[in-house]
Amino acid sequence: MRNEDRPIALKALELARANIGVTEVGDNAGAAVRAYQDSCIPPLPVGSPWCAAVVRFRLKQAATALGEVYDKTFPRTGWAPDYSRWAKGNNAWVSVSSVKVMEASGVIRVLLPGDLALFYFSALGRIGHIGVIEEVHDWGVVTIEGNTNPEPEMSAEVERDGDGYYRKVRHWSEFGKFGGFVQIGF
Question: What are the residue boundaries of the structural domains of the chain, listed by start?
């Protein structure tokens, strides 16, 4: 898929870049976080985690700015597992294990800026965090994620309950056994 065929994904990424550094006021609260939570269908209760809500907010904001509507079946919720479920049912899921093989072989670049990155947590037994891909590399991706913390030095942990919206460097190993990616085709 070519980038020009994905105007909403690219506009959402542009909007995400412009808002890096937005932080909570309180715990999972504040005006920006509330806007993210309210954009979900149904709106998330005050104080709810908001990593998926900000993804929803940016896609909606991008579509509105472009005067377009994106796939009506695509999740509009604040629940990260809904995005992996949709992707798997719509031939838009790429597992981290298959990306590692494809990227290492240099055959094709399967991930693009604007696609979504989903992290699997063994302790939860499910996808538990989501962000948007900004850059793709042989070793992993650079993402923009909400409800996380600034990039710590020398840490391979995925922070899913932080205070803001930050750029993160993510190696393939950080996605967990069943982590993966949603290819955004709009």
Answer: 3-182
